[in-house]
Amino acid sequence: MRTRDRIIAISALALAIGLVPALGFDGPRPPGELLPSRAREVDPPRPPGSVPRAAPVAVPVAPLPRPAPVPPAQAAVPALTAPVPALGPPRDPPIEPPTTAPAFAAPSMPITPFEAFRSGTNSLRQGDKVTALRSLEYAADRGLTVARWKLARMYQDGEGVDQSDLRAFEYFSSIVDARADDPRTAPDASFVSSAFVALGSYYRTGIPDTNVKADPQRARRTYYHAATYFADPEAQYHYARMLYDGTGGPKDFRRAAQWFNSAANKGQFKAQAMLGRILFKGETGVPRQPSRGLMWLAVARANAPATETWISELYDAALKQATEDERGSAAEMLMQWMNAPRRDQ
To answer: What is the pTM of this model?
Structure first.
């Protein structure tokens, strides 16, 4: 929630004072037309048991390929390298030193994966993309989850590297393969659940011109694991949308509302908007609760960025149809919700 004053303003002015010009809030639209096209776009995963990966695509066991060596002036990592100490006097004739040095040439003291990760992120901020990539790969090759996640996001967004959803998919998959059963209280749990959400989005849409094909059923299972095991609000929202739309399995409005509710109480504004819509209109298995639905739409509108215009449209349409008593009850519910302690669901 942005600020307490913002919410109070919405409830006091919009709910209690009166109506605003709005769209009609008529019956449910077909799944393909549930929301404006802006709302149907797949959210970039942030982004978002073990899930079997697409059979043709496998995360390599060996370290991922690295760029060809470049001159030392560009590739050397001074903070992480040091010359190999001599073990004795050189033989006759002396051994000539190599003309180029590897990215991590036998440091005088062993470098930890986390030190390499920290050096890589610092280099990325300073614009040294070559050093950043090699440092992060060094850490990722040695199993550091956060380094693998960072590389996945870099390839996903094209940050410091050529954009490649397939490379991002491989790094996210390597995290899931290694850490899927980590406890949700583990230090890296947020990166693991984020990797599940990202994979769910890739399975849902596929990756063009690769062997990663659209597989809605697998996407649904992937979201479900992160939603239940890690209680990830992004996964809960995406899983609920698949239940609501009937993607990858049958529709189930009642279960969708339950998962939207869980994510909404953790601040996921899209889940708040969808829960409000369901409750205001009513759906099969979900009785109509207009005041509570209007309350959730007000919360979603306060939390959503201005670019999410579909949420404002839903709110305005519901406000237009709500009675004065419903708006007053929604304002009271809003105040109660604001004062209630938040809990993980």
So the answer is: 0.70
